[in-house]
Amino acid sequence: MKEDLISINMLLQFLLVILILGFGVYLSVRTNKLTEAGALTGGILGFCIFLGGGFTGLIMLATFFILGSAVSSYKIKYKTSLGLAEENKGQRKAGQVLANGGVAALAGLLAWLFPANATVFQLMLAAAFAAAISDTFSSELGNIHGRRYFDILTFKPGIKGQNGVISSEGTLFGFLGSSLIAIIYGFGFNWDWAVIWVIFGGLIGNLADSVLGATLERKGVLNNDAVNFLNTLVGALVAGLFYILT
């Protein structure tokens, strides 16, 4: 009897998640935030994230998507006039969705497949989102509120919006974004040193994004989607490594 109740509860949870994700897919297409392929990809990734990260993982996904879309639309006319706005009015395709959420989804799957190691994979899931939102906040808000811009490799003055060019203000916004995901992680999983590793992983991933932008992306070796994917991968691996070492 008890096992039957557990099975029914799990089934109801899955149905609820499918409804939530289905509504999110519909709304993201309706509001032109994602292409149809991008929305479907996001729905699949969201389910993988739920498998290992539960509703906390979905909250992280929603936070990244909603706030990321909001800051991308923030002062869009000004950014467009400077040539800094995203293409297609910020409507993201499947490749961009995979670049930002693929690592988190993989971590969610691993947490589900290997429950004995779920804690470290859930941490990596959070750090991947921390790196993604840190990069988005840094670039979108830094290009608006930054005062001095410099090349991350040479520390010489740089051109606003150029790959690998950052500002102190943008870095601070990135820290705030990373901290927000860490707070969600703390409430959903546990308040311990892992919260710091989420923040740290997000910041290191963001810096790695800038370094890759200043080197391989400028030379055309990597495109923006590849850099974003590596950004989240670095964030996840850094947080996981610190968790294991401590």
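[next item in queue]
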Amino acid sequence: MNTKFVSDLIESIGDPILLSLILLLVVFSMTFKKEIASKLFKTKSTNSPKPRDISHLKNHNVFTTLRRIKYEVANMKFYTHKKYDSTKTKMCEDFTVTKSDICAKYMNEFLEYGIPQMSRDRLKKTILDLQVTMHEAYILEIKKLWQSKDIPDEDSEYVIHLFEKFRYDVVNSFEHRVTAIFASSNYKDNFVLTLAVFEMWAMGIDLLPRDMQTTFENLNGKFKDINYER
């Protein structure tokens, strides 16, 4: 350190007591600089936000939405030639309950997949694959149910095809939105990514009663005389 600078600094301070305190502070800081830096870093780490637990998403409103839409559809009534069609009404309710229960099952299982440890790309692929799996699973289940009611396979496939036609824009947007979510830098970790996907699913599920109603209102009366309730 420049001797003249130190001499000038001492003269400028003047007060010997203040000078002593300053010198003690400088010596203390130089001696314990590592400990001080370590303490400051530790405090910063302690105050940083903890990663959120994926299991908290088990309480997401996507699950309450899946339950709610079953009750909404259960209150619908369908008619053929202006007469109440109990078969068509019950088929719609069963279709909705099957789809809702299958989706809830797979979404809950998805939260047990070890999401926090996944890479971003693997999580994206898992979600896209899950959407296909849920779709295939509920179609298989509703076909089995309708087979047990003596509804021919071609008639079951016709109803499913009609539903998917009205549902196409929603399902197609799911894949586009997943791609957009994972391409955005705003979603920093796997919790936030999964939360965004759950929000998207909940929005799509909200539209399900509309698509069910449109589907079954467009059916003809071929199911009217089936003893569906037996």
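[queue empty]
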